[in-house]
Amino acid sequence: MNELQKQYPDEIRQILAKYPPEYKRSAVMPLLHLAQRQNGHVSPSAIDEIAEILDVSPTDVVSVAGFYTLFHLEEGGRYRIQICTDLPCALRGAEHFLKAVCEELGVAVGETTPDGLFTVEEVKCLAACHRAPMFQLQGDGEIAYHEDQTIEKFRALVNDLRRHAQTHKEAA
Amino acid sequence: MSGYVLLRHRDIPDLHKLDVYLANGGFAAFKKAVTAMKPEEVLKEVMDSGLRGRGGAGFPTGVKWSFLPNKIWPHYVVANADESEPGTFKDRELLESNPFQFLEGLMLSCYAVQANVGYVYLRGEFWRIAGQIDGCIADLEAAGLLGEKLYGSDYSLRLYTHLGAGAYICGEETALLESIEGNLGQPRLRPPFPATAGLYGKPTVINNVETLANVPPIIERGAAWYRTFGTEKSPGVKIFSLSGNINKPGNYELPLGTTFRELIYTHGGGIPGGRGVKAIMAAGASSTLILANDQSLDTPMDYESTQQLGAPLGSASVIVIDDSVNIAWLVRKTVNFFKHESCGKCTPCREGTFWMDNIARRLISGQGSLKDIDLLYNVASQMQGKCLCALGEFSTMAVASGIEKFRKDFEALVKT
Ligand SMILES: Cc1cc2nc3c(=O)[nH]c(=O)nc-3n(C[C@H](O)[C@H](O)[C@H](O)COP(=O)(O)O)c2cc1C
Ligand code: SF4
Ligand code: FES
């Protein structure tokens, strides 16, 4: 049993049960989601472990991980603030909101705050166009939508997350 | 509007809970199908209803189901909950607030083609919704509505979710199947079509969430009843996702054939600041731009009528653009989206979206020339008909129609 199997035995069994036994490669995405849960990115050793569970090569797992934007092979901020600036949101002020967020945190798009907590990213449509400006927060193994945003609401959230990070050094 | 067919949760609180859904007639259609109807009869009812796919192409749903060969087994049904077209947020509302109606539709589809396993493919950003759907599936198993020998029949059915991870192209049905199989989400060459060789090489039906949510009321109340909504060739109701420069953005369930004017002004509350409408996109970022005037505003939104404006209805994600917007800026937004989402499998799309994005960026930053406008138009024309899947084609729509109908907006940005 490798580390991933030791850590998430039940989850892995449930995931594999979804697919025909001869097609267990189907589990690669769910396992990547699982491996990313704890520290927000998929480590090289997790890649090897997934490959071992599925009887595929680590290269196969890396190429799948690299194809999809929600999988991160490199470490970023603990929380990724992914602001939608796609057309419908942009028509409702999303680009101004992005700028205000960057100023608030003192970073440019793609950068991480010095405390390692927040990375600001620009993303495409998230199916929330009627509630722009909006962003999703990816971190601590979850993805949460924050809609109908203002910079005041954003500031309050950032303060909450900072407090949370002081008391909880790691994701649950 | 009261008397919703799809957005019934707006009238019935807590409809996302199984007991509430059951108390409001839920699973009567599925029970009727499994206990009193042959699979062919379910299929025929859906065929007679004239229901057409709500994922974009508008293909008749019953006809699609009838393509599955009876000699190759097992069959699969996959629900497409990838919903990633910019401007589209209708499936999300159904999944969040009326999930059992969608699941019952999926189960009826499985029964009609005698699939014993169905998958729900959700975009990765719907992480929270996927957890909710897993909970619904567990509730259905606990209630004996999913599992072995349902209602004492020989029919067994299991459903599973599969979570994507951020790739618009996985909404394309063959890329979606690749993604479930654990590969890169890149479209397959066709033929073979999924109806004969789909998931794991087996006959497969792929339907949109909204399409499936229409099926329980059709089975319960009949094809003739369903046809009392909409038009002869585009029967039924449709959820229109309304966004952009509009006072009341949101989802509106209306009969197919409702006019743009009614959607925008009666339901959507008109344009902020009383501005005029300059253009309409009926199919999200994949739209051919519609020049707003009395004729287009009075056009009924059904599959045939919008086509007469040269603009497919697609997923009916209506983006309203007011007269303050420069169309060249809008076109850059759309090509940047497609450049980002091109899966890179074929050269015309990979290179074409890259160049269109470059040229459009140059133009809107004031660094372009008149020649760049023609160049942009030419790249788009060159791509048309040469791409492996529809994404490549989609990426040229706003470019070509934007330059044809709003060339002045591009010229205004050119340095002289
Ligand atoms: C690039 C691309 C993206 C697509 N995205 C979606 C999507 O997010 N959801 C969807 O239901 N269909 C999408 N489709 C259409 C599907 O390929 C397919 O036609 C549809 O799911 C079939 O279901 P329906 O017949 O119920 O509409 C997309 C197609 C293309 C070419
Ligand atoms: S047209 Fe674009 S998205 Fe479609 S297969 Fe080719 S590269 Fe991929
Ligand atoms: S454009 Fe931002 S959520 Fe759709």
Radius of gyration of chain A: 18 Å
Strand content of chain B: 5-15%
Oligomer: heterodimer
- Overall shape of chain B: it is globular
Largest contact between chains? A-B, 41 and 50 residues
Structural class of chain A: alpha+beta
| Neighbour order of strands in the largest sheet of chain A | 2-1-3-4
Give the cofactors and ligands.
flavin mononucleotide, iron/sulfur cluster, FE2/S2 (inorganic) cluster
Tell me the span between the first and last alpha carbons of chain A: 22 Å
Task: Provide the helix percentage of chain A.
Answer: 40-55%
CATH superfamily of the largest domain in chain B: NADH-ubiquinone oxidoreductase 51kDa subunit
Task: Kindly state the percentage of residues in helix of chain B.
Answer: 40-55%
Topology of this structure?
The complex is a heterodimer of chains A (172) and B (416).
Chain A: H1 3-7, H2 9-17, H3 28-36, H4 44-54, H5 58-67, E1 79-84, H6 87-90, H7 94-105, E2 118-123, E3 135-139, E4 142-146, H8 151-167
Parallel strand pairs in A: 1-2
Antiparallel strand pairs in A: 1-3, 3-4
Helix pairs in contact in A: 3-4, 4-5
Chain B: H1 18-23, H2 28-36, H3 39-49, H4 61-66, E1 76-81, H5 90-97, H6 99-112, E2 117-122, H7 127-142, E3 158-163, H8 173-180, E4 204-208, H9 209-213, H10 215-221, H11 223-226, E5 237-244, E6 250-255, H12 260-267, E7 277-281, E8 290-291, H13 294-297, H14 303-308, E9 317-322, H15 327-341, H16 347-364, H17 370-383, H18 390-411
Parallel strand pairs in B: 1-2, 1-4, 2-3, 5-9
Antiparallel strand pairs in B: 5-6, 7-8, 7-9
Helix pairs in contact in B: 2-6, 2-10, 3-6, 5-6, 15-16, 15-18, 16-17, 16-18, 17-18
The structure holds flavin mononucleotide, iron/sulfur cluster (SF4) and FE2/S2 (inorganic) cluster.
Iron/sulfur cluster binds next to helix 16 and helix 18 of chain B.
